[in-house]
Amino acid sequence: MAAVAVLVLAAALTACSDDSGGGSSAPPPTPSVRQSSSAEPSPTAPSDPAAAEKEVKQNWEKFFDPAVSQKDKQAVLENGDQMTKVLQGFNGDKRGQQVQAKVEKVEFTSPTDANVTYSLTLKGATALPGASGTAVEQDGTWKVSVKTLCALVQLSGNESPGPGC
Fold first, then answer.
1. Which of 98, 103, 115, 116 could form a disulfide with 57 if both were Cys (CB 3.0 to 4.6 A apart)?
2. Domain that holds residue 145
3. What are 34-73's pLDDT values in tens digits?
């Protein structure tokens, strides 16, 4: 049963990812030219990308930690106060209580949005490597997006995600 859930979860998360796949039309730099980093903030990243990436990873892993309280998970979930019922459904699912996440990559798409690549573990065993989700900066905190949570709740098959999804 868990294997079926993992396969469904993998397919849905892959389908929910937003990979624009756009490439760059600029030629690659020549080996003799060393590119320097600019002090100007990037329009596709927060002003301190390293600090933001660290916070995304910490909050993402906190959200998927079964030992963390519902209240603390709401604090790192986009619109957390409005997502109580959906979060209860996710936390109430037996698989949701056994799942943890390890963030592998954070790619900023704007100063307040990021694509997150992570692996889900079920009872400590990697069940879904390379899953895709999104994080958003809201009220000064990087949070797991509602879109990501809703996709996971829909995959549980136990109930509809509820209001907010």
1. 103
2. 44-155
3. 333 444 555 788 999 999 999 999 999 999 998 899 999 9
* CATH code assigned at 142: 3.10.450
For residue 160, what pLDDT is reported? Answer: 65
pLDDT of residue 8: 34
Kindly state whether residue 9 falls inside one of the protein's structural domains.
Answer: no
Is residue 59 a part of any domain in this protein? yes
H or E element, residue 76? none
Element (H, E) at 11: helix 2-16
Instruction: Give pLDDT tens digits for 10-21.
Output: 333 333 434 444
Pinpoint the alpha helices (H) of the chain: 2-16, 49-63, 70-75, 84-92, 146-156
The tokens describing 155, both together, are: 């995959």
Write the CA distances from 125 to 22, 35, 63, 103, 162, integer angstroms.
33, 41, 18, 15, 29
d(CA 161, CA 153): 6
User: Which residue carries 């397919």 as its tokens?
Assistant: 11
The reported pTM is: 0.71
The number of domains in the chain is 1
